[in-house]
Task: inverse folding
C-alpha cells in the first residue's frame, strides 16, 4: 500500500519513511503542504496520508479541509502526526477532516497499529468524516500486529466519531485495552 508522508522536518520525515518501508508499504514523501496537496490530487493518490500539522505552504489541517470540502470528498484516510497535544487541537484536527490523530513524539509500533488496523477496511464503504454511506468490512488488527502489541500502555488513540465503531472493534479484539466515547 502507498502511504503519503507529509513532513517538513527531515529527521521526523526519515523516521516515518523508514518505518513505513519496514512495515512493508511504499512511502510517498512530501516535504511541504503544497507538494502533499499535489500528490493527493493525482489519480493514483495514496490511500493513507500521515500529515504533519505545521508545514510550509499549506498546513495539514487545511489539507484535511480541502480533501473533505470537494463535491466528491477524496477517499484518503488521514492520520495527523503532530506535536499539537491540547484537547482543542485534537478536536480541531478531527473536525477539519482528519480520521485519526497521533501525537509526537510517537512510538513507531504504535503508529504501525493505527495504520495496520485499516488493512481490512474498504475505503469505498467507509464514511470518512461522515461523507460515505456504506458499512465497513473490518478485519481489526491483523495477527502480526496483535502478536507484537506493546506490553506497556500505548496511551490514547484519537479518532473521528464516524470511525468509533472500527476503533472499538480493534480495541475489543485486543481485550487488554479499554475504550470510551470521551
Result:
Amino acid at each position: 500500500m502507498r502511504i503519503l508522508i507529509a513532513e517538513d522536518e527531515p529527521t521526523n520525515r526519515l523516521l516515518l519513511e523508514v518505518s513505513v518501508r519496514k512495515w512493508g508499504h511504499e512511502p510517498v514523501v512530501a516535504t511541504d503542504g503544497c507538494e502533499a496537496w499535489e500528490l493527493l490530487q493525482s489519480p493514483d493518490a495514496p490511500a493513507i496520508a500521515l500529515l504533519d500539522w505545521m508545514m510550509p505552504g499549506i498546513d495539514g489541517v487545511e489539507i484535511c479541509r480541502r480533501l473533505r470540502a470537494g463535491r466528491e470528498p477524496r477517499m484518503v484516510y488521514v492520520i495527523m502526526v503532530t506535536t499539537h497535544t491540547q484537547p482543542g487541537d485534537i478536536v480541531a484536527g478531527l473536525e477539519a477532516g482528519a480520521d485519526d490523530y497521533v501525537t509526537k513524539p510517537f512510538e513507531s509500533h504504535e503508529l504501525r497499529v493505527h495504520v495496520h488496523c485499516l488493512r481490512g477496511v474498504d475505503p469505498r464503504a467507509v464514511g470518512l468524516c461522515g461523507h460515505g454511506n456504506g458499512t465497513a468490512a473490518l478485519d481489526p488488527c491483523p495477527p502480526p500486529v496483535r502478536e507484537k502489541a506493546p506490553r506497556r500502555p500505548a496511551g490514547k488513540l484519537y479518532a473521528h466519531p464516524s470511525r468509533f465503531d472500527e476503533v472499538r472493534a480493534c480495541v475489543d479484539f485486543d481485550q487488554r485495552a479499554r475504550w470510551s466515547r470521551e
